[in-house]
Structures are given as structure tokens and as C-alpha cells.
């Protein structure tokens, strides 16, 4: 399934060029053109799915295997001390390309990047209530 209007689909079909790192039958990995750090890589399924709620769970094995393989290579190529795997869903979460993708972002000691600030629940009951609410939709 390919969407002719989707840039990542067109990268997957070779219609639009990319700095390719890895591909197999199901997934493709290529450099993000606006890297957080050089080596910042995107892993996509070749088929078009918008986000985590659309992508079939069966594809997870292929994606996970590619993430492991490519992240190890990114670490070696950049001499990174760590990496983040990020995946944004929806505009509110910062998704700008609506073909699901996972970011592999190499990280370095004291690179100054800060993740979001975390808060807390008012009390343990509120936390349990939230857990029960989420679980009720499974
Ligand atoms: P997100 O904000 O999670 O949707 O991330 C989309 C990412 O795709 C951004 O980091 C962009 O820099 C990257 N991007 C957009 N177009 C291209 C492209 N043609 N080739 C490589 N990376 C791209
Ligand atoms: Zn697509």
C-alpha cells in the first residue's frame, strides 16, 4: 500500500532520493535530512501507515529488528555514547510526516539535549484511577 502523495512512500519506492542506510522486504532506514545530531536516522515500514494506531502489530518484529541493527551501526559510526528511539503520533505530539517512522538519535555525554519535564499525580489514588481508566479501553 503506497500513497502517491506521501513523501516517505515515494522515498520507499525510490521515486525520491534518500541517504539510504538499510532496507529489507518490509522496512527502510535512511538519514533524517535535518538531524538532531549527524547520524540521526529514520526507520519506516515500506507500506503506508499513518501512525502507531494504524500499523499492524505483525510489522513490529521487522521494525524492531531493523531498529536494533541500525542503532548499533549508528552508535559505531558516530561514536555515540547512547541513543534515543523516538516515535511521534499526531500533530500534538510533534508528528510532521504522516507515514509512521521511528527516529534513532545518537546521543553524547553532555550534549545538552533536554527531554521534557515530568510532573506527578496528586496522590496514589489518582494514579490508580488513571491506570483503571486506560485499562478500561483495552
Ligand atoms: P516527525 O516530526 O516525527 O514527523 O519527524 C519527521 C522527520 O522527517 C523530521 O525529523 C524531518 O527532518 C524528516 N524529514 C522530512 N522530509 C524528509 C526527507 N525527504 N528525507 C529525510 N528526512 C526527512
Ligand atoms: Zn507513506
Care to describe what's here?
With 138 residues, the protein is an alpha+beta fold. The protein has three helices and five strands; from the N terminus they run H-E-E-E-H-E-E-H. The chain has one domain: HIT family, subunit A (2-Layer Sandwich), CATH 3.30.428.10. The model has no long low-confidence stretch (mean pLDDT 97). It starts with 6 loop residues before the first helix and ends with a helix. Bound molecules: adenosine monophosphate and zinc ion. Zinc ion (ZN) binds at residues 3, 6, 8-9, 48, 99.
What secondary-structure arrangement, pairings included, does this model have?
Elements lengths: L6 H6 L7 E4 L3 E5 L9 E5 L14 H19 L3 E5 L15 E6 L16 H12 L3
Antiparallel strand pairs: 1-2, 2-3, 3-5, 4-5
Bound molecules: adenosine monophosphate (AMP) and zinc ion.
Key traits:
single chain; 138 residues; alpha+beta; HIT family, subunit A; 5-stranded antiparallel sheet; 3 helices; 5 strands; globular; binds adenosine monophosphate; binds zinc ion
Beta-strand percentage? 15-25%
- Strand order in the sheet with the most strands: 1-2-3-5-4
Structural class by secondary-structure content: alpha+beta
What shape does the CA trace take? globular
- Could you give the count of β-strands? 5
CATH-level-2 architecture? 2-Layer Sandwich
CATH domain class name: Alpha Beta
Look up the CATH topology.
Answer: HIT family, subunit A
| Main sheet properties | 5 strands, antiparallel
Mean of all residue-level pLDDT scores: 97
| Global Rg | 17 Å
Q: Count the domains.
A: 1
Determine the fraction of residues in helical runs and give it as a percent range. Answer: 25-40%
Bound compounds, each kind once, are:
adenosine monophosphate, zinc ion
User: Residue ranges: pLDDT <50 for 5 or more in a row?
Assistant: none
Measured between the Cα atoms of the first and last residue, the distance is 28 Å
CATH superfamily: HIT-like
How many helical elements? 3
Q: H/E order of the elements?
A: HEEEHEEH
Amino acid at each position: 500500500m503506497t500513497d502517491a502523495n506521501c513523501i516517505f512512500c515515494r522515498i520507499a519506492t525510490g521515486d525520491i532520493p534518500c541517504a539510504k542506510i538499510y532496507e529489507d522486504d518490509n522496512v527502510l532506514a535512511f538519514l533524517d535530512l535535518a538531524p538532531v545530531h549527524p547520524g540521526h536516522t529514520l526507520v519506516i515500514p515500506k507500506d503506508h501507515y499513518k501512525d502507531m494506531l494504524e500499523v499492524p502489530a505483525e510489522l513490529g518484529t521487522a521494525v524492531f529488528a531493523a531498529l536494533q541493527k541500525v542503532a548499533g551501526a549508528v552508535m559505531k559510526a558516530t561514536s555515540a555514547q547512547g541513543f534515543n528511539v523516538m516515535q511521534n503520533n499526531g500533530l500534538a505530539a510533534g508528528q510532521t510526516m504522516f507515514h509512521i517512522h521511528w527516529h534513532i538519535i545518537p546521543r553524547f555525554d553532555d550534549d545538552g539535549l533536554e527531554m521534557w519535564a515530568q510532573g506527578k499525580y496528586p496522590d496514589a489514588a489518582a494514579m490508580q484511577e488513571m491506570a483503571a481508566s486506560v485499562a478500561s479501553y483495552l
